[in-house]
Design goal:
This protein is of the alpha+beta class and 196 residues long. The protein has helices spanning 2-42, 179-189, and strands at residues 49-50, 61-70, 77-80, 84-88, 93-100, 107-116, 124-129, 135-137, 142-151, 166-175.
């Protein structure tokens, strides 16, 4: 009887451990999407907002600076085509970044982005951006990529942000894993490269 009781306790312990481990794996898998959603809704960590249209220019001007980086192993040359612009609050602006693929293979890239200071995130809205989709550059290709944005006039009415006069928009391009081989095979067969 004692042996059976011990066996049942061991089985219960194993089942509980497996359940906890499964829950931990599920939480880990959902952490990144949930964090992204949280950042997009709140602007936390300098995450920008997405909008359909700008409200129109109003009083107040901010300087928006532009920054470009590449992730480790990404061979692209990537830069803003202008260092900064002066924008009226609510004014729709379009600027361009340039990327060059200096290699002899097609590369698919994805861009992450944020603004600094972080507290400006809820007030920086993009209408269109190259970062919304993957970008495929053929060997030696250079492209100009637009970003259309505005800074919400409420930036100057919020106690936490009303002193801000300069915002920096930063992008980092990463090579999408697993696409180089697919694109190379497509080029070899004469087909158009994919953007998966």
């Amino acid at each position: 009887m004692a042996a059976r009781s011990l066996s049942e306790r061991n089985r219960t312990t194993v089942i509980a451990a497996v359940f906890v481990l499964t829950c931990m794996v599920a939480l880990t898998a959902s952490a990144v999407p949930l964090y992204r959603l949280f950042c997009q809704v709140t602007g936390f960590g300098g995450t920008t907002q997405v909008a359909d249209a700008a409200p129109g220019a109003s009083e107040g001007i901010v300087t928006v600076r532009f920054n470009a980086d590449t992730g480790r192993g990404m061979p692209w040359e990537f830069r803003p085509m202008q260092n900064q612009v002066s924008a009226h609050l609510g004014e729709q602006m379009t600027v361009f970044y340039e990327a060059t693929n200096p290699t002899d293979r097609p590369i698919t890239g994805t861009a992450t982005f944020n603004v600094t200071p972080d507290k400006a995130g809820p007030y920086f809205a993009k209408i269109a951006c190259f970062c919304f989709t993957e970008q495929v550059l053929e060997p030696g290709q250079t492209i100009a990529m637009p970003v259309t944005f505005f800074v919400d006039p409420e930036l100057f009415t919020d106690r936490e942000t009303r002193e801000l006069r300069t915002i920096t928009l930063s992008y980092t391009f990463f090579e999408k894993e697993g696409t180089t081989e697919t694109n190379s095979a497509a080029l070899d067969s004469g087909a158009a490269p994919t953007t998966n």
